[in-house]
Amino acid sequence: MNKAAEGRFDDIVPCTSCCLCFDAWSRTEPIYCQVNARAGRELELNIIPARQQKKVFVVGGGPGGVEAARVAGLRGHKVTLFEKSKRLGGALNAAGGPSVKDGVGYFRDYLIKQMRKEGIEIRLSTEVDNAIIEKERPDAVIVAIGATPIIPAIPGVTGKNVVIAADVMAGMKSVGNKVVIGGGGMVGCELADFLHEEKGKTDITILEMLPKVAIDVGPTLRWVVRKRLDEFKIKIKTNARVSEITAEGVKSVCGGATEVFEADTVVIAVGYEPSKKLVREIEGKAGVSVETVGDCDKIARIAEAVESGFRAALKL
């Protein structure tokens, strides 16, 4: 309220309507928040000035990296953030693609503005390696380079008609009129919603190997996701294991029988694995402390990435 009264609207963290707070409440667990690591833990997670200023490198401009840089800057450290692409935001850029998740985009902008307020040096289009670390000799490195999409070993997965879900959500890849999505978790379901709502696609099929789709969506919002998929007439096939991708579409084993699903574009949405290459390269070699945050440490949600970035900055 004080921030609003003083006109400091940029300093108010925006709610992303993820409903993790309601999910926690429904399980009678302590409340926590996707965008504010201190929520419910205000006495535990305090931003106190550092005893000694350190030269800190943060590698990766996603939610975990930007939050780590922001909090480290608030504590008085001299921070440089490196991002190998031309744009900050990381996974938030894809996650905030659908209009129904515009709150994620607002949160990304909030984080970046807050980091810039702390005078953090930002180096875009810069990929960090051990040579840079050894040359510039930081006191600490926080690695937040995210994850890489899992590409299943399926015949035809490298075909020209196959794309990755995150690339489509971020606007880097386009799809045809008839789309098959391999993977019915949160990413696959949100992608189907996005393609119908934002791109006007009407022939979309989700293939999921488990008995249900959207099982990784919290209970408060899962029914909303399912309701929208039903309203958009998204075709869903569960207990379906993709066996081959061809130029014509997808072959899938469903209940012991093979079915063929025609597709102009096949989108892979089966998950991610942590990117560990940089950590292995610099850990123990450059004489600096190394912390990993976000998906490059453990695949999780935005909330966990933000919290891990916050906690890493408190350790400095």
Q: Mean pLDDT, as a whole number?
A: 93
Please describe the biggest sheet, giving its number of strands, its sense, and whether it closes into a barrel.
5 strands, parallel
Distance between the termini: 31 Å
Side-by-side strand order of the widest sheet = 3-2-1-4-15
Question: Which residues form runs of ≥5 with pLDDT under 50?
Answer: none
State the CATH superfamily name of the largest domain. Answer: NAD(P)-binding Rossmann-like Domain
Strand content: 15-25%
Number of strands: 15
What CATH architecture of the largest domain would you give? 3-Layer(aba) Sandwich
CATH domain class of the largest domain: Alpha Beta
Query: Outline, from the CA principal axes?
Result: globular
Helical element count? Answer: 11
Q: What value does the Rg take, in angstroms?
A: 21 Å
What do we call the CATH topology of the largest domain?
Rossmann fold
Run of helices and strands: HHEHEHHEHEEEHEHEHEEEEEEHEH
Structural class: alpha/beta
Number of individual domains: 2
Helix content: 25-40%
Describe this protein's structure.
There is one protein chain. The chain has 316 residues and is α/β, with parallel strands linked by helices. The chain folds into 2 domains: 2-148 and 273-315, NAD(P)-binding Rossmann-like Domain (Rossmann fold), CATH 3.40.50; 151-270, 3-Layer(bba) Sandwich (FAD/NAD(P)-binding domain), CATH 3.50.50.60. It is 32% helix and 21% strand. The protein is built from 11 helices and 15 strands. A hairpin with a 2-residue loop joins strand 11 and strand 12. Helix 8 (186-197) packs across helix 9 (219-231). It is globular.
